[in-house]
Structures are given as structure tokens and as C-alpha cells.
Write a structure and sequence with these properties.
2 domains; four-stranded antiparallel β-sheet; 4 strands; binds zinc ion
């Protein structure tokens, strides 16, 4: 009865495709996923738990989704990120680039167990209980059974927003950009945290260079604020390299080491 061991991305999607059709329009939630839209700008992906990512290798991200009636947050959580990034780095001469982060994320998203959640009422009333039973829910479990709304767990694996986010890879690119921007920002502006946590997590070795203690080491700005600043800088870096009409008229500047631009699709 409980769909144990069905928690990989492909399995969740396949169960979604087999979900019961809704009486009104005769469609499954999987089919209805296309009526919603995933956020398209990097700055909307500022809700990532960086501590969990670099300390425990677990990505937890809230993906904003514009639904037909309201906006929701789909939470996706999966592990394996650091192992993948180390594998990818080996194949790239130990050079950290945006594409490395993207590959690491895509690969762990496909391979690892995925934990999910959505803020919409459909999820809350029809899926949260069953996903709690099978331990696929991200965050606090729901103990109240869906006796009336989904008594036999026949509606698939999640709401249409979840079906959309699980079947879509574009948002992974935005998350990769955010992580990349964050790493570059931390390396420059928060060297102690970078040397103690981020560098060893990525490169699997101690940071050997001298660390400059910056004045901001003791203040307690939230991760979200840091991500916002890092994404803002990342956006400027992207604009400078691509789509800037003045860049060819000016004296050529030293090419930055960050060749990949991170631009928002708006
Ligand atoms: Zn939903």
C-alpha cells in the first residue's frame, strides 16, 4: 500500500503519470502541470540551505511556482551533491565552473532519493499524509490521514506543481547559478567561512592559503541576504560579459576567470 522505494525522481514522475484522472476535466495532475510556471530568474532562487549543502551535501531549495490560482513554493531536497561535484572537478582539471555545478546537480537530482513538498492545498490535503508514510516528504510529516480526499492513494505522487518541478530541468540551471555566485562571493568576502567549510567541501582538502579575516565575520546576515547580494554581483558579471553594447568600444579589460555568464531569462 505504501509506495516504499519509489522515491527517485523518475519513479515519482512515473507514479504521477499513472495517477487517477480528475472528474472535472478528465486529466491527471501530471498532465495539468503545464498550466503552471516555474520561476525564471536567478534571484528568485534565493531560498537554498547553503549550510546543509556544504556541510551535509544535501540540497534543499524552495522553487517558486506560479500556479493557476496562486503562487506556491515547491520544496525539493536531495543528497549526493558534494560527491558529484568532486567527480566533475576531477574531469575538469580541478577548475570550478558553472557547468561543473550544473552537472553535479543534474546528476544527483536524477540518481538520489528526492524528498518533496508543496505549499498548495491539494498537496496538503491529498498527498502530504501518503508521502509522510512513505518518508518522501521534505520537512515535517503529516500524521492526519487523507481519509476522504485521497483514501486509497490513487492520485499519483504529488500535486501538479510538483509534477512540473520534477519534470523540468530549467530551474536546476538557476539553482546552479545561485550556488556558483554564492561560492565566488564567499571566496572573496567571507574567507574564513570559505576556508573552513566551502573549500574543503568542494575540493576535499584543506585550504592552504592564508585567510584574511574580514570584519563581517561576526555579523549575522541571513543566508538569504548573502545569496541576494551574490546573485546581484553575478548578474552584473553576466551583463558585463554578454549583451553589453559598450563592452567592445572600451579598451579591452582583462578577461575574467569566470567565463560563463549568469543571466536571467526575463
Ligand atoms: Zn502544489
Amino acid at each position: 500500500m505504501f509506495p516504499l522505494n519509489e522515491d527517485k525522481r523518475a519513479e515519482l514522475l512515473s507514479r504521477g503519470r499513472r495517477g487517477e484522472r480528475e472528474k472535472g476535466d478528465g486529466k491527471t495532475r501530471y498532465e495539468k502541470r503545464v498550466n503552471s510556471k516555474v520561476a525564471t530568474t536567478v534571484k528568485e532562487f534565493n531560498d537554498i540551505d547553503m549550510e546543509s549543502l556544504f556541510k551535509y551535501s544535501i540540497l534543499t531549495v524552495n522553487v517558486p511556482v506560479v500556479g493557476e490560482t496562486d503562487n506556491y513554493l515547491v520544496r525539493i531536497k536531495f543528497g549526493g551533491f558534494l560527491d558529484e561535484i568532486r567527480n566533475q572537478l576531477k574531469r575538469n582539471n580541478n577548475k570550478l565552473e558553472l557547468k561543473i555545478i550544473l552537472k553535479a546537480l543534474t546528476s544527483s537530482f536524477d540518481k538520489e532519493d528526492v524528498y518533496i513538498r508543496c505549499t498548495c492545498p491539494d498537496f496538503q490535503y491529498r498527498f502530504s499524509f501518503w508521502l509522510s508514510m512513505s518518508k518522501v516528504i521534505a520537512g515535517a510529516p503529516e500524521n492526519r490521514p487523507s481519509k476522504i480526499t485521497n483514501p486509497k492513494n490513487t492520485l499519483g505522487s504529488g500535486c501538479k506543481h510538483l509534477m512540473l518541478v520534477l519534470s523540468n530541468n530549467k530551474w536546476v540551471m538557476k539553482v546552479a547559478s545561485t550556488i556558483y555566485n554564492y561560492i565566488l562571493y564567499m571566496e572573496k568576502n567571507r574567507q574564513k567561512q570559505y576556508a573552513d567549510i566551502i573549500y574543503p567541501a568542494i575540493y576535499n582538502k584543506k585550504y592552504e592559503k592564508p585567510v584574511q579575516l574580514s570584519f563581517d565575520d561576526k555579523d549575522d546576515i541571513s543566508d538569504k541576504k548573502i545569496i541576494d547580494v551574490a546573485n546581484e554581483i553575478g548578474k552584473k558579471r553576466g551583463q558585463f560579459q554578454k549583451g553589453n553594447p559598450y563592452r567592445f568600444q572600451k579598451k579591452p579589460t582583462t578577461p575574467g576567470k569566470d567565463q560563463l555568464s549568469i543571466e536571467d531569462e526575463e
